[in-house]
Amino acid sequence: MQPNAAMTTNSDISLQLQTLPQLPGVYQYFDKDQKLLYVGKAKNLKKRVASYFNKTHDNARLNVLVRKIVTIKHIVVKTETDALLLENNLIKNLQPRYNILLRDDKTYPWICIKNERFPRVFSTRNFIKDGSEYFGPYTSGRTLHTLLDLIRELYPLRNCNYDLSVQNIKNEKYKVCLEYHIGNCLGPCEAHETEEEYLRKIQHIRQLLKGNFKENLKEFKQLMLQYASEMKFEEAQAVKEKMQILENYQAKSTIVNPKITNVDVFSIVSDETMAYINFLQIAHGAVVRSHTLELKKRLNETDDELLVLGIVEIRERFRLLTKEVIVPFEIDLGEKISVTVPKLGDKKQLLELSERNARYYRLDQLKQIKIVDPDRHTNRVMAQMKTDLRLNKEPRHIECFDNSNIQGTNPVAACVVFKDGKPSKKDYRHFNIKTVEGPNDFASMEEVVFRRYRRLLDEGEPLPDLIIIDGGKGQLGAALKSLDILGLRGKIAIIGIAKRLEELFYPGDSVPLYLDKKSETLKIIQHLRNEAHRFGITFHRNQRSKNAIDSGLTTIPGIGPKTMEKLMIQFKSIKRLGETPEEEIVKLVGKSKAEKVVNFFKELQSKKE
Predict the structure, then answer these.
(1) Can you tell me the distance from the alpha carbon of 166 to that of 177, in angstroms, rounded to the nearest whole number?
(2) Has residue 67 been placed in a domain?
(3) What are phi and psi of 147, to 5 degrees?
(4) In terms of residue numbers, what domain contains 174?
(5) How many domains in the chain?
(6) Are 411 and 507 part of one and the same domain?
(7) What long-range pairs does 498-502 form, CB within 8 A, spacing at least 24?
(8) Is the pTM of this model over 0.85?
(9) Are residues 398 and 269 in the same domain?
(10) Residue 2 is assigned to a structural domain of this protein
(11) I need a surface site. Which of 125, 354, 398, 505 has the fewest CB within 10 A?
């Protein structure tokens, strides 16, 4: 690639836009102090850069970026693929403030087949261009060590660093060590193993590291049959055990049809602030490498842009030369790379496996953030709720209402309060319904919403950012009547949630909103709804118990409120109290009061008879 570089320095943005070419390339934005703000790539530089300045953007960060731009520089390249590669390099080297932040920039280990006579096979983090072969890098240390253990179990190799030249071996310069005596090495240092035999094992190891188990199994099978035909049954059994080890490893590794070979799979999972791109490398039907790249969003980047950037970064990092990639949607990676978007079959299963890996990686990261940096977790969840629920601001203070009445008795309501996505139990409130006769949920909801926010207004307390009504359109409409009377409609966001299908209703919108069943936003709303239901039911039961106590015990002469409460806590019901022997009641309240209680129930019984 031989880029044609150009530079504009005039502070007049409109003039700079007019001079941009309609060619593929990379553009750079600088502020008044000539600090680099952003690097981007474009198929058409003129159109792409102009799009930043000809409209107001929804993303606040993007609007701030545009206001800071004073100078635009650009580099013209031959193809969009060249632009992708150049953009990736510039972002990594210059780290512009508003670009996606590439994470996980670690030095990963490789498996090296050393360029020497009787090659050693070992792990290393140093990539030395000395003719040695390197397989990897491996992002999972567990995978690397499992492979090395498998190789050592199948193929005894030397691990010493002796110079095993023909002359040195002929002169008997070295002696076999303990590794030879315990069977981990066949002793090439004393010519117990020929170079030809040793290199045959190295060839098998190469195939294994490439994910091709077929040739190794075929070779072992032939060797086992040969030993069996020669009546060497112990040797045949040893080879059979190696075949079983290899087959077990292959069974754990193979995911799809072995005919699928040399394919890279990429998927993406993103939220408001981060994107996670999972990569699977497939060889001979087996997953030979998996890695998840974490990208921190700086502007309003789309999943298409993020996935392309991630693929370029991963292919460069792992030196991938694959001609086919499997992705979840159509993207442009240039003419040399075939892009497949599978709908069915084994390739679709691979894509789903990659997506599952990306989701689990994201969940793991979120759990860690929640523990290590709870404020960052809260900010992310609040930003996600704002987007999911189409709100004007983050719902830091949420209140949820629920009615409770069973068979029309003791109608009550509950209001629970969440702050920053967590219950604030000291702010919970319950209400006895005062103005409604009989079981009328709509009128009850109208009453409690009015009473709650009339009081907050009178006391100058802060209003919530979001109100959630446990119920469908009818309950939501009743709550809105109260907000209208108080002049709060439009000042507080309000939604209703219907239980059966978890439908979210908005004022004036007949079509409900459905959230992903696994989304954090829906889980918080369900938590609110369940808390309101629990709090309301508990209060309702207490009220019924209190009424039962009042109706059953207030007529007993000489029994005060504290004694009544003690009796009901112990015996739970009037019926059970009446059936309790006098000596049991004496133990609780003394002989004098126990006689009064027992006489009361005797009189009731005699009246019934």
Answers:
(1) 19
(2) yes
(3) -65, -45
(4) 106-209
(5) 6
(6) yes
(7) 498/471, 498/472, 499/470, 499/529, 502/526
(8) no
(9) no
(10) no
(11) 125
Specify if 100 maps to a domain: no
- Is residue 5 included in any domain, yes or no? no
Q: Are residues 396 and 526 in the same domain?
A: yes
Q: CA 583, CA 420: separation in Å to the nearest integer?
A: 54
Encoding tokens for residue 269?
A: 């999972």
| Inter-CA distances, 81 with 26, 27, 248, 409, Å | 11, 15, 41, 72
Alpha-carbon gap, residue 409 to 540, rounded angstroms: 9
Residue 432: count other Cβ atoms within 10 Å of its Cβ: 11
| 390/524 same-domain check | yes
Q: What is the pLDDT of residues 491-522, one digit of tens each?
A: 899 999 887 677 888 888 878 888 887 788 88
* Residue at a domain's end among 370, 400, 417: 370
What is the rounded distance in angstroms from the CA atom of residue 462 to the CA atom of residue 417?
12
pLDDT in tens, 200-231: 889 888 877 776 777 777 777 888 888 888 88
Q: What dihedral do alpha carbons 240, 244, 246, 251 form, nearest 10°?
A: 150
Verify that 456 and 518 share a domain, yes or no.
yes
Mean of the pLDDT values across residues 412-418? 87
How far apart, in whole angstroms, are the C-alpha atoms of residue 268 and residue 309? 11
CB atoms within 10 A of CB 527: 16
Q: Which two tokens stand for residue 135?
A: 């397989």
**SS3 state of residue 577:** helix
Phi/psi at 435 (5° precision): -105, 0
- Measured CA to CA, the distance from residue 513 to residue 501 in angstroms comes to 10
pLDDT score recorded for residue 568: 72
List residues bridging with 40 in a β-sheet.
27
